[in-house]
Amino acid sequence: MGEDYRIGEWDFDVAEGVLRSPSGSHRLEHRAARVLAMLCRHRGRPVTQAELLAEVWDGRAVADNSIAIVIGDLRRALGEDARSARYIVTLPKRGYRLASPEPPTRMIGRPKAAPVWRRRAGVVVVGLGLLAALAVLGWRERSAPITLAVERVRNETGSTAFAPMSRALDGVIVDQLSGAGGLAVIDASGQRSPGLRLVPRLTLWDGTPALSLRAVDERDGRVVWATIAEAPASRIARVTAGKLDDLKRRLKAGPPRTWK
Known about the structure:
Blueprint: E1 4-7, E2 10-13, E3 18-21, E4 24-27, H1 30-41, E5 47-48, H2 49-56, H3 66-78, E6 88-91, E7 95-98, H4 116-143, E8 146-150, E9 154-155, H5 163-177, E10 183-187, E11 196-205, E12 208-217, E13 222-230, H6 236-253
Parallel strand pairs: 8-10, 8-11, 9-11
Antiparallel strand pairs: 1-2, 2-3, 3-4, 5-7, 6-7, 11-12, 12-13
Helix pairs in contact: 1-3, 3-5, 5-6
């Protein structure tokens, strides 16, 4: 491999599999390092799950949540999560891509100062970008999307062995709901939201993992949607995604008061 990349404040040493920043360093697990290197090499273009399985897992059959667990580990190493992704962007049902202000490039030392005319042009570009952002925000205000505050999956199985599964399902939920038209997904963070709250709980049912999902109207505490995704560990991520498709269809139709 041999290339090093800059990702935000991080320097990624591909050969060593280490992320370094002024605040410290973090050695990545082997598969996590290979996934990040693959995202860097493709320089922001979408990398499908099939491509990741073929290159990182050598095409072997793995559990549905294997990639989600590795992506979750990478996000924690980079100091982000699926709800506040600055670097790794999830493309629902497609894959992942690395996002940064600049495409990742080889580190070749400190860049030279830009000429004055470039700096001035940059100010103009930034100003135009802010105006565009304000226009987009104004459009979103007028479109009044439904806000869905998503709680983290709580492991209520009574066993810490299911902690990785709860973290993986946390990413599956956010990834599946993100990008749905007319829906703003936010982190619940223990606070009330102006719309709906999704409450996920991981339990065991006769030894089989079961993820209960409840959508609660924050205005009156009414449960407007509920389901259970029950499946073996190798399939629960896929079953959960299918259950959430039903919630997305309902939310796309309009606020809960319009549901039949």
